[in-house]
Write a structure and sequence with these properties.
Elements (H helix, E strand, L loop, with lengths): L1 H13 L7 E6 L14 H10 L4 E3 L5 E3 L2 E6 L5 E6 L13 H13 L12 E8 L2 E6 L6 H4 L10 H7 L13 E7 L3 E6 L13 E6 L3 H10 L4 E3 L6 H6 L3 E7 L3 E6 L10 H4 L1 H9 L3 H9 L4 E2 L22 H11 L5 E8 L2 H15 L3 E8 L1 H10 L4 E6 L6 H8 L13 H12 L3 H18 L2 E6 L1 E7 L2 E2 L15 E2 L1
Parallel strand pairs: 1-10, 1-11, 15-16, 15-17
Antiparallel strand pairs: 2-3, 4-5, 5-7, 6-7, 8-9, 9-10, 11-19, 12-19, 13-17, 13-18, 14-18, 20-21
Helix pairs in contact: 9-11, 10-12, 14-15, 15-16
């Protein structure tokens, strides 16, 4: 017997250990708080894609697909939305996901102090539990973007037990129902998640551990990928495309973003709103006419982006062709500045997040607008800090991107409505508010587009955001990684990924 035990032990020692697979993802910034109710960064949404499943998701053609929800039905008057939930789902703390938990999460989005989701689902008047696997959303008015909003953070479900215990500290250790559970975070260094063994769709989870590493310098990010220190990076520089393509160990993946890159103008947020760009329409017009969006695209991005002056791209069905992008007219810009009576140079504090492309665009804009009498004082700021500065109104002009949403409402309402949570410039026009709310309740695409067209002249000429271009999404990964797809929202779906 003793001989058999020794032999068995020797056999076990001889067997190879099963290797733990780790996917290392390089991010362009460090996310803000990891609480889906309070978060607002694009890189945060990338991390959430691994830890916090939503009621619905999108496919590669922007179609709505079920995730934690299985289906939904809308009443004839559009004011009741009944959602059937997936059964047998667990949160990372072992608590069951059911109708009561879904109601808790949605109510939290609607009522929590500082919620950035409230405006996204503001038309929800009440969330009712129908039975253990069904909820009913009672709406104040019909709300066309509702299901699209639930494909993002507004649709993310959190564990009621964990959220109640943690309070406003939930974001330091989030507990959701995604394929991976949160392990640790070291600010500006890493976020670590590991495979959740009780995930409802565990057959599609093939990697044991994911490490997200914020590396602001794009050159360093790419160097880490080439050396094997990272497996996947987001926001490859346009100028690095050729380098990635010629490396046989790397794969370039591209897509078109739903969002936009623009500048936010402080029109009514504190003392810094008292500047000529915000207060004088002629100065505002002159500033835009001094810009050459096409040249910015060519100089900084080798022409791969799409210049535009609207919150959706020209490929979007909601694009308004009757408002074409203004062409540069430096003579008219100078004339407008002269007519305004404002003395030159017009000095503006230009806050710019610290990444190479943003800095390059800012420098090109600085040179262009100087010809019309502007003096942009570029203030490079760490991204998370810039968001805090933006909230305080500590800027004249803020270079800020928006990663975009599947419904156009997600690109405009929170930025242009008077109480919009992302309206850092504090633009407010009651008529625009009325129109944007109407666009949320209109039934057809044609009706909604007509309402946006009625609001556009005011938004484009006086609003807080001046739109510049829509980026091409650029990812690169090592050839060990299989199954990666660029999704329209630019988020990294980790289910289905494999490491050879």
């Amino acid at each position: 017997m003793k001989t058999k035990l020794i032999a068995a032990a020797a056999l076990l020692v001889a067997l190879p250990a099963v290797a733990q697979t780790t996917l290392r993802i390089g991010l362009a910034e460090d996310p803000d708080v990891l609480d889906p109710t309070l978060a607002r960064t694009y890189v945060g949404r990338i991390v959430f894609a691994s830890i916090c499943d939503k009621l619905f998701d999108i496919d590669e053609k922007l179609g709505l697909v079920p995730q934690l929800a299985l289906s939904h039905q809308v009443s004839g008057d559009g004011k009741l939305v009944t959602i059937r939930l997936r059964e047998g789902v667990k949160f990372h703390d072992g608590e069951p996901f059911d109708a009561a938990a879904a109601k808790f999460s949605l109510d939290r989005h609607l009522t929590m102090q500082g919620s950035f989701r409230r405006a996204e689902i503001a038309q929800v008047d009440a969330v009712e539990v129908v039975d253990k696997s069904t909820i009913r959303l009672v709406l104040k008015t019909p709300f066309a973007p509702l299901i699209a909003q639930l494909t993002d953070r507004a649709g993310m479900m959190v564990s009621p037990k964990a959220a109640q215990a943690a309070g406003d500290k939930f974001g330091t250790k989030p507990v959701c129902a995604g394929p991976y559970r949160f392990v640790e975070r070291v600010a500006q260094d890493r976020i670590v998640v590991e495979r959740f063994g009780d995930y409802w769709d565990k057959g599609k989870v093939n990697i044991d551990r994911i490490v997200y590493q914020p590396i602001q310098d794009s050159t360093v990010r790419l160097a880490n990928l080439k050396s094997g220190g990272l497996d996947l990076i987001e926001r490859v520089l346009a100028t690095d495309i050729a380098e990635v393509k010629k490396d046989p160990k790397l794969t370039l993946a591209m897509g078109t973003e739903l969002g936009y890159q623009g500048i936010t103008i402080n029109v009514a947020n504190g003392e810094k709103a008292n500047n000529p760009l915000a207060k004088n329409p002629k100065v505002r017009e002159a500033f835009e006419l001094a810009l050459d969006r096409d040249a910015i695209n060519q100089v900084v991005f080798n022409g791969i982006n799409r210049p535009n002056n609207q919150w959706v791209s020209p490929t979007n069905p909601y694009y308004m062709a009757k408002f074409p992008t203004p062409k540069r007219d430096i003579a008219k810009a100078r004339a407008l500045v002269k007519e305004s009576g404002v003395s030159t140079p017009i000095v503006l504090d230009f806050m710019v997040p610290n990444n190479p492309e943003s800095r390059s665009v800012a420098e090109v804009m600085q040179s262009m607008t100087a010809e019309a009498g502007f003096d942009l004082k570029i203030r490079v700021t760490e991204f998370a800090t810039s968001l805090q500065e933006g909230e305080k109104g500590n800027f004249h002009v803020y270079f800020l991107a928006w990663s975009g949403r599947t419904d156009p409402d997600g690109n405009i309402f929170s930025f242009a409505s008077c109480k919009g949570p992302l309206n850092m410039g504090r633009f407010c026009d009651p008529k625009v508010d009325e129109l944007l709310t109407k666009a949320r309740t209109a039934g057809s695409l044609a009706e909604r587009k007509a309402v946006y067209e009625a609001a556009a002249p005011t938004i484009l000429s006086n609003g807080s955001v001046m739109y510049l271009y829509h980026r091409t999404l650029l990812f690169a990964h090592g050839n060990r990684l299989e199954g990666f797809r660029v999704m329209p929202d630019g988020l990294i779906r980790v289910t289905g990924l494999r490491l050879k």
